[in-house]
Amino acid sequence: MEIVIIRKWKGVNSTLSMLFIDGKFLGYLVEDTDRGLSQSMPLSEILSVKVKTRTAIPVGRYKVAVTHSTRFKKLLPLLLHVPGFSGIRIHTGNTHMNTEGCLLPGKQYLFSAGDYRVTQSRDLFNSFFPQIQAALRAKSEVWCTIKTEY
To answer: Which of 12, 34, 90, 96 has its CA 20 to 30 A from that of 111?
Structure first.
């Protein structure tokens, strides 16, 4: 399974992306500010640019696992080996204030006061999370590719 996130729009403190799974458009994602980080950058450079809890993860391709989140007390997708970041999950939420680097899906989006937010986050998450779980149960790999196309 391939999750593709294409960053398209920048807000003052937020980044809005289009979300695809296996080529099918599902909705949108909101993240923190894209500071131009890339998985191929040296870790020292990533850490020098990153603003803790206010920075979108580097563009790149990450393997996805489903693990128990101690913070959310349930199973959630986790992106593995994100340079300079830890605990990056796909979970529900609406604004950049809910992310701390994580990826927040939503069926629709709004733009207000210079920033993006997503709506119907639970609905969208609940529609694709079972697909991720099924792929992993079937011993398929799940990958998440993040690109920019501003």
So the answer is: 90
Q: Do the Cβ atoms of 33 and 115 come closer than 8 Å?
A: no
Q: Which of 103, 148, 109 lies closest to 129 in space, CA to CA?
A: 103
Q: By C-alpha distance, which of 1, 54, 52, 60 is closest to 31?
A: 54
pLDDT tens figures, 76-100: 999 999 999 999 999 999 999 999 9
Quote the longest CA-to-CA distance of the chain: 44
CA dihedral in degrees (124, 32, 133, 2; nearest 10)? 90
Provide the whole-model pTM.
0.95
Cα distance between residue 54 and residue 72, in whole Å: 20
Bridge partners of 117, per DSSP, are 95, 110
Task: Give CA torsion, residues 8, 9, 14, 19, to 10 deg.
Answer: -30
Contact 65, 78 (CB under 8 A): yes
Q: Looking at the 3D structure of the chain, how many domains does it have?
A: 1
